[in-house]
Amino acid sequence: MSVWTELETAEALRALSVPMGQDAASMSRRRFIKATAATGVAASVLPAWLSDVAANATPIGPNDGVLVVVLMAGGNDGLNTVVPVDDGLYYDKRGALAIAEGTALPVAGGIGLHPKLVKLQARYRAGQVALLQGVGDLDPDMSHFSAMARWMRGHHDANGATTGWLGRWLDGYGTADDLSAVVLGESVPLALVGARRKATALPVSGGDAITADRSEAWIQRSIDCLRDFGAGPTGNGAWADAIGAATKGAVNLADVVKPVYRDEFPEGRLEAQLELAARLVNANYGVRVIQVQYGDFDHHAGQAPAHDARMAELDAGIDRFFATLSPAFAKRTTILTVSEFGRRPESNASGGTDHGEGSDLMAIGAGVKGGVYGEAMHLGHLSDHGCPIAHVDFRSVYATVLDTWLRADSRQVLGASFENLGFLRSPTK
Amino acid sequence: MPTPSGDVAHLLRRAGFGGTAAEIAALAPLDIRTIVDRVVEAPAPPVSRPAAFSATDREYERWVIATHWWFDRMATSPAPLAEKLALFWHGHLCSAIDKVEKMSRMWDQHVLFRQKGFGPVDELVHAVAVDPAMLRYLDNDQNVVGSPNENFARELMELFTLGVNEYTQEDVVAAARAWTGYGRDWQTGDFLYRPNRHDHGLKTFFGQTKAWTGPEIIDEILHGKKKDTAARFLVTKLWSFFAYPDPERAVVDALTRTFQTSGLSTKAVVKAIFLRPEFYSTKAKRGLVRSPIEYMVAAMKGTGLSASVAHPEWFCRGMGQVPFSPPNVSGWRPNAYWISASAQWSKIGFANYLRWKVNDTPLLQNLREQSPEASVQTVLRQFGVDNAGPQTKAALLRYVQRERATDRWAERPNLLFLVMMCPEMQLA
Q: Which ipTM was obtained for this model?
């Protein structure tokens, strides 16, 4: 069995579990909201996405950027990913867990990449990797769940918002039943849930039900009945309605995405996810945002072999993605890695590290202005909890992506103005 | 006073995995208190490890064997509430095979949920804290004096007993130090307390400074000045699992009183839940989506297929719920978490598989001799769907009429498939 990590948090749970009214009055209220959704009136009261599953495919424009978010669940150890090779404090504090001197892959002055990130090093040298140092939550929370929820919300009011940053982008983009945002997995994390729309969840691989031949009449009749289950209100409340709509939507969506599932997928889960992501971009269904998630990075004990394996997966997955990606989309597609926090410099007695605060992120692709952004975190100035202190607000990474790459209004999505870090070019064909 | 059969059906779905038409008819003439007593007091058959489990040392095979055993038990036990509570605790006091690596330890933890899951919650939490699967899952087996590991200490408060924002980082550090030394024997993997690895120093926890031990931390959480917070947290979680999320304040107040006056008895709370009028409200009846495990068990009950034929282990991951492998320490979430195109495809795959397996059995072979309306009604009843709405009924009827106009041979497998996929079948 492979590790299987889903990232919804306790808060995400509450946000995802929208309390639904069950009576006739709330049904008509729901229709009212759907009807007024275009103007955004009262949109936060009850999300219309419960009845929408994307099925329309409209190609993206020549200057539309595509964003692929790789969420590293559990708190990736930024210090052992983007290694401060010349910092004596790093070796002092990390002890045996430090990446041994001379083994990190040199990329810039004082910085080496984890030894497993071989292909990423080559990409860095080709000018296609931005290393974003010292990024984090300036009001850090060391609980996975609270921290992840804050990252997923990505709002100026980090604890108050009930929607995710990409979900809010989605609210203002496209049409209700398009494929603008996709998450590869079984459910949709808060980051991609908006007030009116949410991303479409696609299975990572396989799905005989998607590729099955439906040409015979007796099969077609049963497929028609599945669609009928979602034709209108069930008379059994909003959850039954949502189930019926999702069933209908799944059947309709299968007709659209069938081609990307035909060929075999690689073994590793992240590699398979990123292979599928590249195929989805190539198919040009209008996908602008894809999120994949993998882990677990919560290495409280026995970190070295586990983190090595995660880094090898990352290197292989990113390489696979760009190998599959059509040259037509190369300058319009960027990968962004995120994680809910980094880890402490001091290792614990279990050969692991405990929850930290700031960390390093990466943006990868031909549309990236390669290089190092921001200063390395100061390992001599730690927080009260012994953590390196972030000095770049993670929401300024989001602002850069939203404004430059998705050409959206980051102030509107994030609720305030955050600095554009300048690590992206404008996307172009 | 007799009980409406809709209420009986609802209770049997929530306290178990659904009742047959005969079970519902037998209970409906009784008073609701009598029915709830029967449901809650039904003696669970003894549990013993399947011989095949012990006969192999391959972890994946053991996972399949344990999964089959549990699905069959959920589908056929005369005391399904014990299975439901085992599922609840598995999703609350989480451990996962992915990290524990030994199915034998996951099995033992599962047995523990059955032994203590009905009783006082403090006994359960104390037992789970030193359960080898939990010691491994949250790294307390690595937590030693001088280098505390905070993983268990934090989740004990945040996810198991109190909720977020009810403690400080200093409390986490103190609790982690208090739990040092409660580890595992390296040779056997069993629980072992090593006094020389325990931090015997003074710690300040919830404002009290003393030489706290691990178990004292649990007692302080559940019986100290935070006891009301803990009680409310736990009864809210139980209500959300059995009835609907976000219970009204009055419901939580009443259940908290029951919980506290009963000595933190889970059984007393569960019984009180089943006796609340809100539990039988329209809001409750429509308030929960079946989790994939509940859904697959209900389909197995309806088809009469055993796990070795239905193979839930092939489909559970795609639906988003793998037994013995909750996604993280916060467990599984309800409702919207289970609804996506991706999950629906997996259900379609499962229902599709089951329909052909049923085709090899004598179940419902005379459907085509019935009127279209009766045929639909028969299959709905077979799966315990007593609440199909007008749209679902009309869709199924339209299907049967179209099928009978031409091929009609496909009616039985298709109708079984379609009822397994109708929205009401997927409600808890």
A: 0.96
